[in-house]
Design brief:
It is a single chain. By secondary structure, the chain is mostly helical.
Amino acid sequence: MSTKWPSKKEIERMINKIHKEDLWTMGRPENPTPLQQFRFDLQQKFTLYILRSKITQKEMAERLGVDETKVSKILRNRLDEFSTDRLITLYEKINPKVKLKVS
């Protein structure tokens, strides 16, 4: 299965939607630790999934088996109450073929 990259127009639409809907309220920390970077990258995968799938937070919550508040926190990069293991477990629900690598 090959990955089809979104068109430039689709990427611009996604970026505009992120800014318009304030899906990304906390950015990557300046000089992040490797763990902070990993968690930030994982959060971005949730955000891209919801944008590419064109689903609501409610639908995402149903797929993940959590309430909408949790999805909102993930999408806004408010991850303090989520362990890294929990984030990975949730992400596996929307991408069961996820592979983790340490480089």
